[in-house]
Design brief:
Strand order of the largest sheet: 1-2
Number of helices: 3
Oligomer: single chain
Radius of gyration: 20 Å
Largest sheet: 2 strands, antiparallel
Order of helices and strands: EEHHH
């Protein structure tokens, strides 16, 4: 039987500490949502100052693009391609 690695935790070591990330696609999606909120909040504040209007527009464009990334992350989390070890498909 092929081991399901889609939900296996990612462990990062920092000296004597370990950061364990479970459900990585969900974590990536949450981080993406956090950045979307930052871009739109900062863009909204910049619109209060006419000299920063162009920067505000670019932040809205970046945030809008990240709205396209959101369903992509969800789709990738459901469709996960995994290499089958040679011993399972050759014989």
């Amino acid at each position: 039987m092929v081991e399901d690695r889609t939900d296996s935790p990612l462990t990062l070591k920092f000296g004597h500490e370990e950061l364990i990330i479970r459900r990585r696609y969900e974590v990536i999606s949450i981080i993406n949502d956090f950045f979307i909120a930052i871009w739109f909040l900062v863009g909204s504040i910049l619109f209060l100052f006419p000299e920063y209007e162009k920067a505000a527009i670019w932040l809205f464009i970046v945030g809008s693009f990240q709205f396209l990334v959101r369903p992509t992350i969800r789709l990738i989390s459901h469709i996960h391609i995994q290499r089958i070890p040679a011993s399972n498909w050759e014989s």
